[in-house]
Amino acid sequence: MLPRQLLRTATAGESGRHGIHPGHFLRVCFRSTCTLSMLVNVLWPVVPAAIALHFARPDLHVWIFSLNYIAMVPAANLLGFAGSELAKKLPRVLGILLETTLTSLVEIVLFMLLLHNDQDGSLIPVIQAAILGSILANLLLCLGLCLFCGGLRRNEQTFHEAVSEVGCGLLLVAGFGLLIPSAFSAALRNNNSDDSESISADVLAADTLTISRSTAVILLIAFLMYLFFNLHSHHSIFDDVLRFDETQDEDGERELQRAKLTMPECLLAIIIALAAVCMCAIFLVEEIDSIVALGVSDNFIGLILVPLVEKAAEHLTAIDEAWDNQINFALFHCLGPSIQTALLNAPLAVIVGWAIDKKMDLDFDLFMIVLLVLSILVVGNFLRDGKSNYLEGGQCVLVYVIIAVTTWYYP
């Protein structure tokens, strides 16, 4: 078991290589970091096929949607792999934050495209569902799979309270911050039965929009505090935690022997992955109306389908780390993107909508509010004792499956 610091040294200048070597670049990118990622890379031929189909047969809406949905998985996987290679050349906490930010670019691109394509407000519910769906996918599906896979190889896994308590506490606050505009709107809608206290629907919608925009600005300030906390004032705590996790890596020997990307190769891989992600996301978003017209609810697309594909790379990385007994790294990759979605991506969607005069707000459906709050509380309860096993992970995954089935029937 070799610390990741040795891996960083090997990565920074493996065999004295510099620049870009096409054969080595393609070989390393295909092998990726683990078996799961390598299997996902088999889907790369779907990427050019999906792009070509969009131009050759624009009338095949279902096929275009399906192929571009699949194509985003290997593209996001390459982005995650290149991000992890780049992260190993940086200090621990900064590297992980940069890695989660790169994978969140897929989500930000989708949000911006949905906002741009929205003409009559029909895509706003998809964005709202995708915001909460992203958090649910990380908390229930990704974290559940991490606890389940890690628990299969050992009786239990222990993680540091600095990761679980800070992460869950901040996520709970961020979640409630997101839901305050919804609570305001729902409370006044219910009071409209009393004539003396009622307000018009237009006034209520305008007030909710104003509150959402104010909340978005405040959440962005909270995100800056989160960055300062992790990168400056308390970075030593997290460095110690992650340094301990590096000594627990059961895959360290093989990781040290694996070929690495140079810095230029990392940047090239990121550019290729971002280009593929953006093109597939554009074609995917353009077909959402056609898919909804076939009977698939916009809630299911936003809450389940979109988060699964946009977070594929993050999920594969976290599961592999949990399997190798690096449970603190895995928690960072589960809780970090959820916090970033709540404090950065969602407020960014509201502010960009404000700038382009789109009525993007944080007035979520009551059904989704209940799902988010209960999920945060359940996960926080599981992580409270600092230990985990496959039973807790399996329960989280099963709850996510129940949510997916219910959302399919939710209009």
Automatic annotation (TrEMBL):
It comes from the Eukaryota. The chain crosses the membrane at residues 36-56, 62-81, 93-115, 127-150, 162-188, 208-229, 266-285, 291-309, 330-354, 366-383, 390-410. Its main location: membrane. This is Vacuolar calcium ion transporter. GO terms for molecular function: calcium:proton antiporter activity. Gene3D superfamilies: NCX, central ion-binding region. It holds the Pfam family Na_Ca_ex. It is found in: Endomembrane system; Vacuole membrane. GO terms for cellular component: endomembrane system; fungal-type vacuole membrane. GO terms for biological process: intracellular calcium ion homeostasis. It is a multi-pass membrane protein. Has a role in promoting intracellular calcium ion sequestration via the exchange of calcium ions for hydrogen ions across the vacuolar membrane. Involved also in manganese ion homeostasis via its uptake into the vacuole. Residues 61-230, 268-408 form the Sodium/calcium exchanger membrane region domain. Belongs to the Ca(2+):cation antiporter (CaCA) (TC 2.A.19) family. The keyword Transmembrane helix applies. InterPro entries: CaH_exchang, CAX-like, NaCa_Exmemb, NCX_ion-bd_dom_sf. Keywords: Antiport, Calcium, Calcium transport, Ion transport, Membrane, Transmembrane, Transmembrane helix, Transport, Vacuole.
